[in-house]
Design goal:
- It contains four helices and 22 strands.
- The protein has helices spanning about 1-20, 85-145, 150-175, 180-205; strands spanning about 25-30, 30, 35-50, 55, 60-65, 75, 80-85, 210, 215-220, 230, 235-240, 245-250, 265-270, 270-285, 295-300, 310-330, 340-345, 350-355, 355-360, 365-370, 375-380, 390-395.
- The protein has a six-stranded antiparallel barrel with strand order 3-12-15-14-13-16. Strands 2-21-17-18 form a four-stranded antiparallel beta sheet, with no helix packed on it. Strands 4-11-9-6 form a four-stranded antiparallel beta sheet, with no helix packed on it.
- Helix 2 (about 85-145) packs antiparallel against helix 3 and helix 2 (about 85-145) packs antiparallel against helix 4 (about 180-205).
């Protein structure tokens, strides 16, 4: 009897040892597939850009008399920025104006003196010609009657020819002083020459006053009064006012997600707590082969006042959103970038491989569009379980 009890006790002890020694499975953590809003975005780094950057310089070499603006000043189109010394240009303008005044005086002289005097001289020459002709006829008659010698007729002929020559001279002088005459045309030519000289002098003078070509922000000043401005050297750098833009670079692998018109949220590194909205308006048609990036340009919809040209910003472009996405932690999906992603699910105490299809990728989570039902327990990789392993699920703390 005692032997039976002893055998039963030994069998019970062996069963207990076997139960403790029997494998209980790999301890794993699981995440349940659940539906929740999920947003996928692409992050890029860029800088604030303006419509254009303008370098203000001079075409001539001159001493700088004044610089009217400093960095940070906002200017309107036409505002004076830099004044160069204009002593020589002002002298040229004065000289040209005196030449114009001289030409105008010449017109007055022609109208008030030249033409009347020429007409009076012409009338006198006509009278002299009539007298000479009468004297010639008289001498001709008297010589024929032998009252005068033939030499008297020769002298009258010479006087007649002289009177005719004088008349032709006076006619030419009168014609030269008429509105279409040579003197008038000569005066007009001098007036045109003087006016052209004035326009040239004024144009050179204008080159010495540098003005803002457009509404802009002064971002650099490289000139001070007393400096010598050289042709081709930038004295000021302006950022044209207008649409504020962001020029950013994006990894080429994300290019397929972007499209024109996509909204984005931007944050300046200097003001991290003040995000602002922007919109994609340009995607570069080429890829930077060395960096593997693509240029993206965005327009800022309502630029905040703290933005400055060349300021560094981070841009998050929203490329997709699903209000009821079936999602898992990103690390729960194996081979996620391959053509056949999969997960391990807990089924009947074992790890089973389950192919899935993925969709949107948010911050730390990924959408599973096919292959799982809501509530399925997906095994996380950290436990080390393999397909077919017996498992035991750890309780979440």
């Amino acid at each position: 009897m005692k032997s039976r009890h002893l055998v039963a006790l030994l069998l019970a002890a062996a069963a207990l040892v076997a139960w403790w020694a029997w494998p209980r499975g790999v301890a794993v953590d699981v995440e349940n597939a659940q539906r929740a809003p999920l947003t996928q975005s692409v992050v890029a780094t860029g800088r604030i850009a303006t419509p254009s950057r303008i370098e203000v310089g001079t075409q001539v070499t001159a001493i700088i008399d004044a610089v009217a603006v400093r960095e940070g000043a906002r200017v309107k189109a036409g505002d004076v920025l830099v004044q160069l010394r204009a002593t020589e240009a002002d002298a040229s303008i004065a000289q040209a104006r005196s030449q114009i005044a001289e030409a105008q005086a010449r017109f007055v002289q022609l109208d008030a003196v030249g033409l009347p005097v020429a007409e009076q001289a012409l009338r006198q020459a006509e009278a002299n010609l009539r007298v000479a002709e009468a004297e010639y006829r008289r001498a001709e008659a008297l010589v024929a009657q032998q009252f005068y010698s033939p030499s008297k007729l020769d002298e009258a002929a010479r006087q007649l020819e002289t009177a005719r020559a004088q008349l032709r001279t006076m006619q030419a002088q009168r014609d030269a002083n008429t509105p279409r005459g040579a003197e008038r045309q000569n005066a007009q030519a001098r007036m045109a020459q003087a006016q052209a000289a004035l326009e040239l002098a004024q144009a050179k003078r204008d080159l010495l006053t540098l003005r803002a070509p457009v509404d802009a922000l002064v971002i650099a000043r490289d000139a001070e009064p007393g400096d010598v401005a050289q042709a081709g050297r930038a004295l000021l750098t302006l950022a044209e006012a207008g649409e504020t833009r962001i020029h950013a670079t994006l990894d080429e692998k994300n290019l397929r997600y972007l499209q024109i018109g996509a909204r984005a949220l931007a944050v300046a590194d200097a003001f991290p707590g003040q995000p602002f909205e922007s919109e994609v308006y340009y995607l570069s048609p080429a890829v930077d082969a060395q960096r593997g990036t693509v240029e993206v340009r965005l327009r800022v919809i309502d630029p905040p006042g703290f933005l400055r040209p060349d300021m560094t910003v981070s841009v998050e472009v929203v490329i997709g959103r699903n209000e009821q996405a079936m999602s898992l932690p990103l690390e729960a999906v194996r081979d996620i970038d391959s053509k056949t992603p999969w997960v391990l699910v807990a089924r009947d105490g074992r790890a089973a491989k389950q192919p899935v299809k993925v969709g949107l990728r948010g911050v730390g989570r990924v959408e599973v569009s096919e292959g799982l039902d809501e509530g399925d327990a997906v095994i996380m990789p950290a436990g080390g379980a393999l397909e077919g392993d017996r498992i035991r699920i750890r309780k979440k703390r």
